[in-house]
Amino acid sequence: MRNLTDIKSRIKGVSDTRQITSAMETISVAKMHKAHQRYEANKQYFDKIRAVIKDIITRTKDVTHRYIAEKRGGRAVFIVIASDKGLAGGYNHNVLNKAWELMSEYSERYIFTVGQVAREFFEHKKAVVDVEFTHATRDPTIRDAAEIADSIINLYDQGLMDEVYIVYTEPETGAAAVARSMKLLPLSKETVIGGIEDAPYKNEDYYREIYYDPSPEAVLNELVPQYLIGVIYSALIQSVAAEHSSRMAAMSSASRNATELLEKLRLEYNRARQESVTNELIEIVTSSFGTENRTATER
Amino acid sequence: MERSFILEISTPDRDFFRGGVESLIIGTPGGEMGIMRNTLPLVTPLDPGVLRIKQNGGWMEAANGEGFVEVTPEKVSVLTQSAEWPYEVDMRKVQAEIDAAQEVLRKAQSLKEYKMAKAQLARQFAKLKVKGRGLD
Fold first, then answer.
1. Phi then psi for A213, rounded to 5 degrees?
2. Which of A182-191, A259-268, B92-101 is predicted least confidently?
3. Which of B12, B15, B43 sits opposite A230 (nearest CB)?
4. Which of A77, A253, A277, B44 is 20 to 30 A (C-alpha) from A57?
5. Could you tell me if B63 and B123 are in contact, meaning their C-beta atoms sit under 8 angstroms apart?
6. Which residues touch A59 (CB under 8 Å, ≥6 apart)?
7. CB atoms B43 and A210 under 8 Å
8. In 3D, which of A263, A267, A245, A257 has the Cα closest to residue A21?
C-alpha cells in the first residue's frame, strides 16, 4: 500500500502544474491569434517582395554587382531566430538543430542569434556567438529588422563574408511548424524564389529590357537592403507566430497529460484510503472479537 | 477618359492599396517621378515622402517610408516599409518620434545612427505634410 500523504502531495503538485500549463495555454492562444494576424497581413508582402526581386534579377542580364555575384569562399553568416523562453515543444529544438546541421558544412562561420535560447544553445555547443539581438522575439518591429539587416550589410560590404543565411520557423496550417533556412546573400534566382511562379512573359526580348533609375549599381545598393529588411522582418514575424502555436500545442498536451495523471492518482488515492479504512475496520473487528471471546471464556 | 494601369502598394503590415489608377507620382533620389500607363519598365528606389495617386480623376495622397518601385508592362508595384493615409496619421505620435529622432541626431556616435535618424525624420515629416494638406 502506498502512503496516503505521499499520494496527496503528488496530487497537489500535479494539479498546481496543470494550473500553470493551462494558464500558459490561455495566454498563448491570445498571443497566437495576434501573431497569426500579423503573419497573415505580412505574408503577401513577403511573397511580393520576393517575386519582385526575382523579377528584377531575371530581367537583369549583364549587370554585375557584389550582391548578385556568386562568391565561393566558405565564409558564411547564419542568422538564427529562436525564442527567449523554453516550454514551446519542439520549436526551439527544431530550428536550432536545423541551423547546426547547416553550419557544419562551412569551414568559417559567424553566428547571429535572435532570442536567449538560441544563444544558450550555441554556447552549450562551444560555438562563438558573434552578434546577439535581443528584444526582437516578443514583438518584432521593422526597426529590429533594419538593425539586423544593417549589421549584415556592413560586414558584407567590407568583404568579411561570402554568404548569408537566415534560419527561422514557418508556421504551417494547424499547430505544426517547420524550420526553414533561406539564403539571403548573394542573391540568385534560385535563392529568392522558394515556390514562387515565374511571371508570365509574352515577349521575352521586349520584357527583358528594364531601366534603372539612376543606374543599376545605385538601384541595387538601395534595393537589396530594403529587400533584406523586408525578408528579415517577415522571418521574425513568422517565427513569433510559430512559437506561440508551438507553445499553445505543447501546453495543451501538458494540461491533458496532467488531467490524465490526476485521474489516475485520485483513483490510487481513493483505493489507498479505502484500503486503510478496511484495514482499520478489520483491526477493530478482530480486536473486538478477541475481547468478546475473552469475556465469554472468563464467564 | 485617361487610360489606367494597375497599382499595388504593399507594406510589411498590410496591403495598402490595390487598384486601377491613372497616374502615380513618387519621390525618388533623383527627384519626383510621374508614372502613367505604358511607362518604360523600370526599377527605382523610393525616398520617404508623399506619394500621390490619381484615381477616377481625383488625387489622393499618402505618406510613405523607404522602399522601391518596380514598373512592368503588367503593373506597378510599390514596396515600402510604411504607408499611411492622412486620416491615419497620429500627430502626437509623430511629434514624439520627431523629438526622439532629433535627440538621436544630436548624440549620434556613428554614421549608421545618423543615417537612421535622418531617415526616421524624413518619414515623420512626410506624415506631417500629408496631414497638414488634408486639413485645408
1. -115, 120
2. A182-191
3. B12
4. A77
5. yes
6. A207, A208, A209, A210, B41
7. yes
8. A257
> CA nearest A203 in B: which residue?
B73
Q: Is the dihedral of CA A23, A28, A31, A34 positive or negative?
A: negative
Cα–Cα distance, A19 to A12 (Å, whole number): 11
Instruction: Encode burial over A59-76: b for 16+ CB neighbours within 10 A, e otherwise.
Output: bbeebeeebbeeeeeebb
pTM of the predicted model as reported, rounded to 2 decimal places: 0.80
Residue B71, domain CATH: 2.60.15.10
What digits encode the pLDDT tens for the residues B16-55?
888 889 889 998 888 888 888 887 888 888 888 888 898 8
Judge whether residue A201 has pLDDT over 50.
no
Q: Which domain holds residue A235?
A: 21-251
The residue range of the domain holding B58 is: 5-86
Nearest CA in chain B to A45: B12
Asked if residue B74 and residue B15 are part of one domain, the reply reads yes
Centre a 10 Å sphere on the Cβ of residue A218 and count the other Cβ atoms it contains. 15
Residue B116 to residue A49, Cβ atoms within 8 A: no
Give pLDDT tens digits for B55-107.
888 888 888 888 888 888 888 889 888 888 888 888 888 888 888 888 888 88
Would you give the DSSP letter of residue B81? Answer: S
Is the Cβ of A154 closer than 8 Å to some Cβ of chain B?
A: yes
- Is A67 near chain B, with CB under 8 Å? no
According to DSSP, residue A186 is labeled S
Q: Residue A114 sits in a domain of what CATH number?
A: 3.40.1380.10
